[in-house]
Amino acid sequence: MKKYEMQKPLYVLLLMIMLALSGCAVGTAVQPWEKETLARPEMTFEGDKLDTAYTEHIYSSKEGASGGAGVGGGGCGCN
Predict the structure, then answer these.
(1) What's the pLDDT score for residue 77?
(2) Digits of tens for pLDDT over the chain (79 positions)?
(3) Are 48 and 56 in contact (CB under 8 A)?
(4) Cα–Cα dist 28/25, whole Å
(5) What is the DSSP letter of 19?
(6) For residue 9, what are the CA distances in angstroms to 14, 42, 57?
């Protein structure tokens, strides 16, 4: 068997990996006219403000305490 014939599958594998990864390299910036779509209330992490307030009320009622839904950290300085 020739040396080239043994390396052919390796070349094909490398080519397939490069083609697959080249699709991940496309990075398009968000255009100014597209920012309006991304700024809609349903695109936020919190979602509906009324539903979020209701969920926090239920959580604080079940736990018997209020707060604690913000940034973590204690008095020991371990934020």
Answers:
(1) 54
(2) 566 566 778 888 999 888 888 776 667 777 888 888 778 777 777 777 888 888 888 887 776 665 555 555 555 655 4
(3) no
(4) 10
(5) H
(6) 9, 48, 61
**In angstroms, what CA-CA distances link 77 with 49, 51, 53, 56, 69?**
31, 33, 29, 26, 18
Q: Which pairs from 18-21 meet CB under 8 Å and 24+ separation?
A: none
Class of residue 55 by CB neighbours under 10 A (exposed 0-12, middle 13-18, buried 19+): middle
CA distance 47 to 53: 11
Look at the block and give the residue holding tokens 């349903």: 42
